Amino acid sequence: MYKNIIAVAVGALGFVLGLGFLGNAIKNRNKSDNTISVTGLGTKHFTSDLITWSGSFSKNNSDLKSAYDELALDRKVINDYLISKGIKQNEIVFSSVDIQKQFRSYNDSNGNYVQGEFSGYNLTQNVSIESKEVGKIENLSRNITEIINRGIEFTSSSPSYFYTKLATVKQEMIATATKDAKERAEKIAENSGSSLGSLKKATMGVIQITAPNSNEDYSYGGTFNTSSKEKEASITIKLEYEVN
Questions:
Q1: Binning pLDDT at 50, 70 and 90, where does residue 33 land?
Q2: Any bridge partners for residue 13, and if so which?
């Protein structure tokens, strides 16, 4: 009988402790649910301060040395032209020469492709410029037909625009987005008759850089527009607060 009394007592104690643990669990669960999650936005408009531009030129000849000599003459004309437009020599970069063999090709009577006899060499070289004088390089890229008018087979690419102080812009946007998110959280808490507690979690999104007023899509890994001189960057910050 004594053993039965002890067993009942132990069981009762266990039941009481179980209720206590259950109560704490419910309390903690409710406490963890009593949070506010908000997302803030930070944006910044800026003008690119670095530009890159490139073009290519080529020569065809059945003799490799002759083709290379002709290409070298064109390279000098291009280099002198760029210097005459105020481009610094250390900003002008010529790539290595790409050499491709050319063949006369045709389709036979059965419609099969046939690579015919060797017809010569095609030599191509690229020239590129990187400069902080954005306006000057823009004008150069628009008026590159002056090189073509000198008898050079030249193909110009569109300029690409960059910004060298992007790290500073990103810090400013993070601060703005964080402030925006906190103000939203405070407003929500105020409207619900509560007060904002401790910050539990902060998550930063990726930076998105697009042309202003464009319909460019945001990317999961971040968008970086290089075709527009004027740019608009944005970033989001998600904050999770406890609510008292």
A1: low
A2: none
Alpha-carbon gap, residue 133 to 166, rounded angstroms:
18
pTM of the model: 0.77
Over the stretch 108-124, which tens digit does the pLDDT of each residue have? 777 787 777 888 999 99
If DSSP states are collapsed to H, E and C, what string results for the chain? CHHHHHHHHHHHHHHHHHHHHHHHHHHHHHHHHCEEEEEEEEEEEEECCEEEEEEEEEEEECCHHHHHHHHHHHHHHHHHHHHHCCCCHHHEEECCCEEEEEEEEEECCCCCEEEEEEEEEEEEEEEEEEECCHHHHHHHHHCCHHHHCCCCCEEECCCEEECCCHHHHHHHHHHHHHHHHHHHHHHHHHHCCCCEEEEEEEEECCCEEECCCCCCCCCCCCCECCCCCEEEEEEEEEEEEEEC
Tokens of 78: 């291009």
CA angle 48, 158, 133 (to 5 degrees): 40
What is the C-alpha separation between 76 and 84, in angstroms, rounded? 12
Residues 102, 68: Cα–Cα separation, whole Å: 15
What confidence tens digit (pLDDT) does each residue in 201-227 have? 999 999 999 999 888 888 888 999 999
pLDDT at 8: 40
52 contacts 127 by C-beta, under 8 angstroms: no
